[in-house]
Each structure stands twice: as structure tokens, then as C-alpha cells.
Write a structure and sequence with these properties.
The structure is a homodimer.
Chain A (H helix, E strand, L loop, with lengths): L5 H24 L4 H12 L11 H20 L3 H33 L4 H10 L6 H9 L6 H30 L4 H35 L5 H19 L4 H12 L15 H29 L10 H23 L5 H10 L5 H12 L5 H29 L12
Chain lengths: ~400, ~400
């Protein structure tokens, strides 16, 4: 971008925010995930349809802030105690729901469609992480958010997210080198392990400093500037350590989450009122920036240059979609307990979302995924997110209307 | 800006936010205005001292969002009923506190220092608007925020702001044309009058729509995206009408302020709970963006290229400072009532702030103010803001310790 006029920038930003909001609301009314509406807003405004918006450098950087704030929020909402409660069941569902889609997506791309190794890795990676938001809402509508299967799904989605982000860091390193290098992967895994072990502790210590500072501060607006600075700092630190920026956002969020605790720190207990203030004050900022990212993803998609008459895009999208659904179902069937609950868990795990979109976007900007593969991934993500709530509702109405809400599966 | 790396952008932004916060806090502790601390942060980081930061295009656009959000906040806090209460006294103080500094600043630049007509107009304009924030805080510390003189000062400052913003729009038009054209000024005044008459009403109607929409919305984050969009839209509209963008921010804020009411609209009464939600959710966003603007102003200042050995910068700054102080005092002496109260009002009106900085910045970017005049203006603004609280406190301790807090001046 050259020197974009200020009023043009204001107008672009306004159009993005308003269109995103409109379609998010529309999709919410259709009982569909708002995020798909925001994607669609980007598709409509972008080269695929109207061609009104071409994202400038500024909008792209605002979208980058959007991603790290999104991962910050994912981290913030991660409930580590929840994981401990659902324990092995959730871990089992998560790991198999991570491994199967990855292996199937990778195999499909590599063996059936003969894509390059890096491409196949990104396609597999995109299918791994579960987007739990929409499922939680459906389960809440059905008044089953406290059921045991809901708890398993929540736990599994958290683990999924973490595994997905780690895989993303490894693929990010590959994409920078342009090649798959196991030694390098090992090094990156080491760095990520170090980052994940140290960053949240470090971030937690800083957040305690911020809390102290807040108590004696004589100015307004401490939390927005300091917490955003903290997130930016960890994003920068993650980059400096050779991992993706968004890992830093996630680590910072994890450290500030209500349920995060330091191993030795009795004296370092979370202060719920402080967490509440962070939550209240960061949420509007997150809500402002995150839609910019999703609209950007839609803008990045050019459906016009795709050859819709070739069978490739259709067969690839549909088989990838099948793989994405099956991959998540397989894992849940390994659970113990009644088969209906197992299926409910599997269906609830189907939606892909934020992390998948970040995978696809990273693969595209690194020049690894071409426009068609990218489009197929976005389509698959959108379909899984649209399918799961519908499936889940009809499934519950048919098979589980009489199951008590807090019915415990045998451990 | 070319394609700035994401992590560099994150780092720049973080350094700006943290340094601004640090100095704001430091200044607050020294009983001085935080905004001067934020300016100083920019001076330290910028070419004047360390030379670490050169604002990229992105940072500049974020600063632009900062300005319009700042003006939005000024509008939001404008209390029109307050004006009605203090009435003529406030109007008198405001108008004379607007006219005298303008005339004196203009005369000094034009006649004594032989600057160009446009330069002199910008110098005069910079001295007009009172920054009331710091004064209110001092009066609150002295428990005199409900006194009659405080009310007069508050009312006058609001009128000052409005007059200042109107003058800014006229000068903006001159700066675009590169010349002073009375016919053009008339046209701009007409447009501004139209904008000020219509925009708040229009914005109010939109805000009522937003409130309706919020009641039935099924998604989160409606207020941050819609209110920011509203502000961006009015900024864009203001530009489209040939007035500065920030006028739009101000109009939007005015329309959303608690005390704004439409002439005929009994049915359109403000909803205090809705205003509260806007306030709570917009404040963190404003607090995040506004410091970026003030740091930018500091960054724009290059104290190194100024010839400090020449007498010009010293004599110009000091005489301008004298004029800035005297100009505000003169107006207050026209009030009726005890001379101590008149002086208190005058001293309280001395601080210049946000609007003055915007004047200076606009004059600089339009190529009208050279580095030395710009530096002198920033120095004068900083000095007035530092001087007034000190003066006010010692004045009250000496002359008004025994005056009852709610003592009414004769009308």
C-alpha cells in the first residue's frame, strides 16, 4: 500500500465491519455459526463476487492483530481444571480426533490427489482443530451443556486446539524453509515445548505485575494498553523464537485465564476480580478486531479464478469434507459408554473453525496452497461448521430426548 | 510504507503503548497531565532523542482512528444541559477565551514575527480550545468541582471545543486550497453549520436503530463494531462534505452523549442503560487508540533540527506562552462577581490540549507550519497544561480556602 487516504481507509474498515456484522447476525438467526457469515461477507466484498475491497497493508495488519487476539481469547477461555476433570476420555477423543483427520486429509491429498508433501501437510493440519463455540451454543440451547458428553467435548476441543497450534508452528517452520526437514521439526518442537513451558509462566508473572501496577495506578485505561502490549510482546517473542506469532497470543491468554495456576505459586493465586476486569475490558477490543480477520480470509478467496467445470475442485472438496467428518467420528467411537453418547461426542467435534482458517491462510500466504486447494479448505471448514449443529439437534431430538441432563457415562 | 513485517509492527506498537503508559503514569504522579507524558514518550522515542521509531503508514492510520475516537469521546462527554445551566456566563467566558488567544496569537505571529497569513491563522487557532480534563481533576482534588466557577469553566470549555473544531474546519479548507479565501470560508462555515445541525440528529437516529438491533441481536460484540462503524461513517461523511474527519467523530459522540436530545423527540429519549453499555464497551477501545495519537505528535516533533542558539525559538515560544495565558485570563475578568472567582475561572481555562495538538498536527502535515513553529506550539501547549494545575492549587490555597464549596456568584 502506498499512502492510502485516511477517509478511504475509514470507509473500507467501516464496510468490512458492517458487512461482517450483518452476515454474522443473519447466520446466527439461521442457527448457523456467525463466523461463517463473516467469511461470506469477505467473499461477497472481495474478488469472488463484488470486487469492492482489496485489502490494504493496513487492513492486513489489523487482521493480524485480530488473529493474535483471537488466539488470546482461545487461551483465555481454556480451562485447565476442566481438562483434569474429564481426563483420559477427553484426551482420547482429542488425540484421535486430531490424528485421524490429519492422517486422512494428508493421505487423501498426497496419495489420491498427488499434491506435494507440504501441501498435504497443510491440508491435513487444517482439518485437525475443533471449533467448539458453535457446538457449545447448540448444546446450551438443548440444555445439555452440563452433560458428561459436553464436558468431554469441551476438554477434547481444548487439547485439540493446543495440538493444532503446535502442529501449525511446525508447518510454519517448514513453510519458511520451503521443505520438510525432520531435524528442523525436532528443533521447532523443542522450541515450542520450551515456549509453552515458559511463556505462560512468564506471562502470568507479568500479569501479576500489571495487577500490582493497576492497584496503585493514577491514570485510566491501564488494562487495555497493558494487556494488548502483553499480547503483542508475546507474539513478538514467539516470532523471535521461530514459532508463529499467534502462539504468543495463545500463551498470553492461557496465562491470564481464570483457571491457570503456577505450579508452586500459592501466593500467586488468580484474582477473580482482576480477571473479570480483563475480560470486560478486553472483550470489546477482541470483538472489534477478530471480524477483520475472518473478512480478510473471505477476501483472500477468489472463487472466480477456480475452474468450476473441472471435476477436481468438486471431488477434492467433497472427499475432504467426508474425511473431515469421519476423522472426528472415529475417535469418539473409541469411548466407552452408550453408542448414542459416543456419536453425540463425535458430531459435536465436527466443526472446524478459527485454527483451521489460520492454517489455510498461512499455507496460502506462504505460497504453498494454490487458490483451489485454499478454496476447498475454506469450503470444507464452512460445511463442517454448518453441518454439525443441524446434525446434533436432530440427533438429540431423535435419540436422546429422555436421557437425564446430568447422566453420567460409566468411567 | 512497504510490506512491514508483522512482528516489527507488533513490536513498534507495543513500544509505543508501553512508553506512553509509563510516562502518563509518571506525570499523573507528579500531579501533571498524563497527556504531556504521552507526548514526551513520542519525543523520547522519536527523532528528537533516541530515533528508535519512525511512524509507519499503519501507525499513522491507527493514530487517525485515535483522533476521531478522541473527538468522539469529547462529544460523548459534552453535556448540553450543563451549557443551558451556566448559560450566558459560560458563553461569555468561552467566546472571549476563544477570541482573545486567537487574535493575540495571530497578531503576534503576523505582526511581530512576520509569518504568513496561513501560519498565523494556525498559530492563533492552536491557542483557542481549552483542555478541561486536567482542571476538572484539580478542582475535584480541591473538592470544588461543584462550585459555580467550576460549572462556568466546564460550560465554557465545551463551547470552546465546538468553536475550536469549527475554526479547525475552516483552516483545514484553507490549508487544502493553500490560500485564504473568504468566499470559501463562508461556504465551509455553511457546510459545517449544516453538518452540525444534521449530523448529530442523523447519528442519533442511527444510534436508536442500533439500540433496537441490539435488543434482538443474537450475536456478541454488537456495540464495539457498530459504534466504531458509526464513528468511521461520520468521519467519512465529514470528509465527503469537505470538513475534517474529526468533526464526524465529534458529531457522533455528541449524538450518543447521555444528555443529547432531539428537538421533537419525546419518543426518542435516551436510554441510560444503553448509554452505559456504549460507555463501558467503547472506553477500552478509546483508551487503546488515543495514546497512539499523542505519541505520534511527539514523534512528529524533531527537536534536533531546531536551531536552539537562535533567539527566535525562545522568544517566539515564550511570547506565545504569555499570550496563551493572558488570552484566557482576559475573558474571565469580564465576568461579574468577586475578583478571586474571576481569576480562578481564568486560570482554570489556561490548559490547552487535544484540540490544540490536532491544530498543530494538521498545520504541520499540510506543510504550513515548519518544524520550529510546530515545536513552539507543542511546547506552549505542554507548558499551559503543566502551569495551570500548579497555579490553580496555590491560588485556591491562598485566596479561597474559606469560600463555601457551593457558594453562588450573584447572577
Amino acid at each position: 500500500m502506498e499512502s492510502q487516504a485516511v477517509h478511504q481507509f475509514f470507509f473500507q474498515l467501516m464496510v468490512m465491519l458492517l458487512t461482517a456484522r450483518l452476515f454474522a447476525e443473519l447466520f446466527a438467526r439461521l442457527q448457523s455459526p456467525p463466523v461463517v457469515g463473516e467469511l461470506l461477507a469477505g467473499v461477497i466484498l472481495g474478488p469472488s463476487l463484488l470486487g469492492w475491497l482489496e485489502p490494504s497493508q493496513v487492513i492486513k495488519l489489523l487482521a493480524e492483530i485480530g488473529i493474535i487476539l483471537l488466539l488470546f481469547e482461545v487461551g483465555l477461555e481454556t480451562d485447565i481444571r476442566q481438562l483434569a476433570k474429564t481426563g483420559w476420555q477427553a484426551l482420547l477423543v482429542a488425540v484421535s480426533g486430531f490424528v485421524w483427520p490429519f492422517v486422512l486429509g494428508f493421505g487423501l491429498s498426497r496419495l489420491v490427489y498427488d499434491r506435494s508433501l507440504l501441501e498435504a501437510l497443510f491440508v491435513g493440519g487444517t482439518l485437525t482443530a475443533t471449533s467448539i463455540g458453535i457446538t457449545v451454543r447448540v448444546l446450551t440451547d438443548l440444555k445439555r451443556q452440563h452433560s458428561r458428553e459436553a464436558q468431554v467435548v469441551l476438554g477434547a476441543a481444548v487439547i485439540d486446539d493446543i495440538l493444532g497450534v503446535i502442529l501449525l508452528a511446525v508447518l510454519y517452520e517448514f513453510s519458511r524453509g520451503g521443505d520438510v526437514d525432520p531435524a528442523n521439526a525436532g528443533r521447532v518442537m523443542g522450541l515450542i515445548a520450551a515456549f509453552f513451558a515458559l511463556a505462560p509462566v512468564f506471562a502470568k508473572l507479568i500479569s501479576l505485575l500489571i495487577r500490582r501496577f493497576e492497584l496503585i495506578s493514577q491514570t485510566d485505561g491501564l488494562i487495555p494498553t497493558l494487556i494488548v502490549s502483553l499480547v503483542l510482546f508475546f507474539a513478538w517473542l514467539a516470532h523471535a523464537m521461530g514459532t508463529p506469532e499467534l502462539l504468543g497470543g495463545f500463551a498470553a491468554g492461557l496465562a491470564l485465564s481464570r483457571r491457570f495456576f503456577l505450579p508452586f505459586g500459592v501466593a500467586l493465586r488468580s484474582d477473580p476480580a482482576f480477571s473479570d476486569r480483563i475480560d470486560t475490558q478486553m472483550r470489546p477490543i477482541i470483538q472489534l478486531f477478530v471480524p477483520i480477520f475472518f473478512v480478510m480470509v473471505g477476501l483472500s478467496l477468489n472463487l472466480r479464478v477456480i475452474d468450476w467445470s473441472s471435476s477436481f475442485i468438486w471431488s477434492f472438496s467433497l472427499s475432504l469434507f467426508a474425511v473431515a467428518v469421519l476423522g472426528k467420528l472415529v475417535g469418539s467411537l473409541l469411548l466407552r459408554g452408550a453408542w448414542v453418547e459416543r456419536f453425540a461426542v463425535g458430531i459435536a467435534m465436527i466443526p472446524r473453525g478459527e485454527v483451521g482458517l489460520i492454517f489455510a491462510e498461512l499455507g496460502r500466504t506462504a505460497g504453498i496452497l494454490n487458490n483451489e486447494i485454499y478454496a476447498a479448505l475454506i469450503i470444507v471448514i464452512a460445511l463442517t461448521t454448518l453441518l454439525s449443529p443441524m446434525l446434533l439437534k436432530s440427533f438429540y431430538r431423535r435419540f436422546l430426548p429422555s436421557v437425564p441432563v446430568r447422566g453420567e457415562l460409566p468411567r
